Amino acid sequence: MEVLSVASEVYPLIKTGGLADVAGALPGALASHGVTMRTLVPGYPSVMAKLSGGRVVKELDDLFGVPAKLIAARVEGLDVIVIEAPALYDRPGNPYVSPDGWDWPDNWKRFAALGWVAAELALGMVYGYHPQVIHCHDWQAGLAPAYLKFGPPNTVKTVMTIHNMAFKGFFNAEVFGQLRLPPAAFGVGGVEYYGGVSFLKAGMECADYVTTVSPNYADEIRTPQFGMGLEGLLNGRADTVSGVLNGIDTDAWDPTIDKALVQNFSANTINLRQTNKQALVEKFGLDGADGPLFCVISRLTDQKGMDLLLQVIPGLVDLGGRLAVLGSGEAYLEDGFRHQAMLHPGKVSMASGYNEALSHLMQGGCDAILIPSRFEPCGLTQLYGLRYGCVPVVSRIGGLADTVIDANPAALAAEVATGIVFDPNSAQALYEAIRKTVRLYNDDKVWKKIQRRGMKSDVSWETSAARYADLYAKISGLDSNDNPDN
Ligand code: ADP
Ligand code: GLC
């Protein structure tokens, strides 16, 4: 089975969030299930810089008005096809926004090009390459299924995976004329959405199958609260929508060998984490108190409930906790954390920006990670937390609810608790959860059991990779008895 994965980011070539981790880990996880996965990715500067020894497999004179080359390469263990189109992708900033934080005005064109190339590859643009399934991730890849649906007859199947419903890839109707789609595509069965164009809706409408990244989020997005206007579409095709839980790359995230840690450790040598904690205390300029060290590793946005956390920081400090924050995002939240750090020297500290190595060290040294998200399709930082003994404190939402078992009395008695889960998603409930965490932390025996259990829980791709492989086979008609919902 040959599958082309289409993603706007893929770790370790380019990453702004969890999508990159998932796109980067899936090919390796699928290999043992008989699936060969190549990844199509735009040639941003950081991608081009890592590319060496690639082969030009196609030259295009006119990719939405600009020249482009498709380069096939094996980089960092991944088989990729990179779209080298400097006029579209050779820009500073991250893949979506300029260095001053504004969306690039031609994002519709930059990602229409991604979807169009994917569809053309599926249709045989490169001699000898015939993927049977195109697996599209998020809105940036959403037009590929539309190009295939409204293009020449073909047998290629498509899967659209929603990592985040909040980003719809919505553009003014005026762009439609330049998308290289026939007029019929501007309708309910195509890319039209409330009078404009939505790349995500297009993918969700035109793909053969839609997945999202946890079973609970797959249920949630069928409701108005989480469906964000697309719940009707999902309910209309309920038998071809399901949730496949994300896993993590357990080689890249392995506390026994992780080079980003000051001290490696395992579930049997949890006390060694203390050395990492000490290193973090120094790095973040915190004091040497006894209490738990909480952390945040996150985009600082409303989605992540960071405004709720800001409200309870004084309470966290009063309870004897300290807080290390690694993140970047909305200015008012960054400022808020800086302000709290100023008010609570030695107790609260903030590192802004993006730092992969530091994120590993924090998972390997902090006692608990706070994730008070308002919605969370899956969430990966709680999975890294579980694997590294950094106990997750999460809101009962989306994939967080699917992956963390709350330390309530019954779960503690049954010896299954792996974290702290709270609801409703309010500052009050978050504060109570922090209080409960401090209480559990102070009971060393119970706390270590929670940590150890988390470290031993299965956060790998094993089960979910099998489900994707079954799904590809099912929609391709190779194994019609295999139901991916089972
Ligand atoms: P989302 O994709 O919504 O941002 P996830 O939890 O799925 O949330 O994935 C976030 C990923 O980005 C994780 O790998 C996390 O460790 C990483 N991350 C987030 N912020 C930072 C940061 N400031 N520095 C390093 N890694 C970060
Ligand atoms: C999105 C979601 C996050 C998920 C990630 C990878 O960015 O916000 O919950 O874990 O994609 O699927």
- Bound molecule types: adenosine-5'-diphosphate, alpha-D-glucopyranose
Give the N-terminus to C-terminus distance in angstroms. 21 Å
- Remind me, CATH topology of the largest domain? Rossmann fold
Architecture per CATH nomenclature, i.e. the level-2 architecture of the largest domain: 3-Layer(aba) Sandwich
Structural class designation:
alpha/beta
The CATH class label of the largest domain is Alpha Beta
Number of helices: 19
Given as residue ranges, the uncertain stretches (5+ residues, pLDDT < 50) are 480-486
Q: Can you give the mean pLDDT?
A: 96
Features:
486 residues, alpha/beta, Rossmann fold, 19 helices, globular, binds adenosine-5'-diphosphate, binds alpha-D-glucopyranose
Q: Explain this structure to me?
A:
The protein has helices at 18-31, 45-50, 86-89, 107-122, 143-149, 199-206, 215-220, 224-227, 231-236, 273-283, 306-318, 331-343, 356-365, 381-388, 398-403, 409-413, 427-441, 444-456, 462-475, and strands at residues 2-6, 36-42, 55-63, 66-75, 78-84, 133-137, 157-162, 170-171, 192-193, 196-198, 209-212, 241-243, 293-300, 322-329, 348-352, 368-371, 391-395, 420-422. The protein is of the alpha/beta class. It folds into two domains: 2-247 and 461-482, Rossmann fold (3-Layer(aba) Sandwich), CATH 3.40.50; 267-455, Rossmann fold (3-Layer(aba) Sandwich), CATH 3.40.50. The protein has a nine-stranded mixed β-sheet, with helices on both faces. The protein has a six-stranded parallel β-sheet with strand order 15-14-13-16-17-18, sandwiched between helices. The radius of gyration is 23 Å and the shape is globular. Mean pLDDT is 96; it is low at 480-486. It binds adenosine-5'-diphosphate (ADP) and alpha-D-glucopyranose. Residues 17-19, 21, 297-299, 326-328, 354-356, 359, 378-381 line the site of adenosine-5'-diphosphate. The site of alpha-D-glucopyranose has 14 residues, from helix 1.
